[in-house]
Amino acid sequence: MRQAEITRKTAETDIRLSLTIDGRGAYQIDTGCGFLNHMLELFTRHGRFDLVVTCAGDTEVDDHHTVEDVGIALGQAFAKALGDKRGICRYGQWLLPMDEALAMIAIDLSGRATLGFQAELPSQKLGTFDTELVKEFFLAFVREAGATLHIRVLAGENTHHIIEAIFKGFGRALGQAAAIDSRFADEIPSTKGTLGGES
Fold first, then answer.
1. DSSP string for residues in the chain
2. 140-146-147 Cα angle (round to 5)
3. First-to-last CA distance in the chain?
4. Is 167 exposed, middle or buried (0-12, 13-18, 19+ CB in 10 A)?
5. Is 111 within 8 Å of 197 (Cβ atoms)?
6. Phi/psi at 130 (nearest 5 deg)?
7. Partners of 94 in beta bridges
8. What's the pLDDT tens digit per position in 61-104?
9. What contacts 173, CB < 8 A, 6 or more positions away?
């Protein structure tokens, strides 16, 4: 089982996270930010991971530190659970419709941290959630996971639908990339023989 546990404690957040890559889509998530909880639940179910997250953060200020630090912890968990990435498919892509919204997600578990984020979010807030934090979450994730991630929103008018399409598509694409390719289960999918950031 490819699993990881991450504990991250700062002056701003206290996070405990456990991840099973080869899971069933089960989750227990309490970040103190209701919208983030919902998006992580969608991500987990569609990626077929198992995820437990608790976060006590300074949400009396705003959700910024919570969202960013949960992204950091999740990226660290994937990096740890994937290990040397032997046998993985490496690449994943998904085109995800959510009502009028359409999001394209493509990921390479390359070891290199890059985010391409082209998503116009019509509303600046959903309830108390600042929608600009969606990009901050993914920036934090790719830096820690060592992943190249491209997110493009191709259509959409409702901000909730757009972000939901992004997180569902992210789960699907990451699940695809992290899956073991049975044809090459003993190989690292790189001509350099490593996925440590330069392949």
1. --EEEEEEE-SSEEEEEEEESSS-S-EEEE-S-HHHHHHHHHHHHHHT-EEEEEEEE-TTT-SHHHHHHHHHHHHHHHHHHHTT-TTB--EEEEEEEETTEEEEEEEE-SS--EEEEE---S-SEETTEETTHHHHHHHHHHHHHT-EEEEEEEE-S-HHHHHHHHHHHHHHHHHHHHSB-GGGTTS-SSTTS--SS--
2. 85
3. 25
4. buried
5. yes
6. -80, 115
7. 105
8. 889 999 999 999 999 999 999 999 999 999 999 999 999 999 99
9. 92, 93, 94, 105, 106, 107
Task: Give me the residue label for tokens 């999918």.
Answer: 189
- The rounded distance, in Å, linking the Cα atoms of 195 and 56 is 33
Tell me the C-alpha distance between 67 and 134, whole Å: 8
pTM of this prediction?
0.94
pLDDT digits (tens, 9 = 90+) for 119-164: 999 999 999 999 999 999 999 999 999 999 999 999 999 999 999 9
Name the pairing type of β-strands 27-30 and 114-118. unpaired
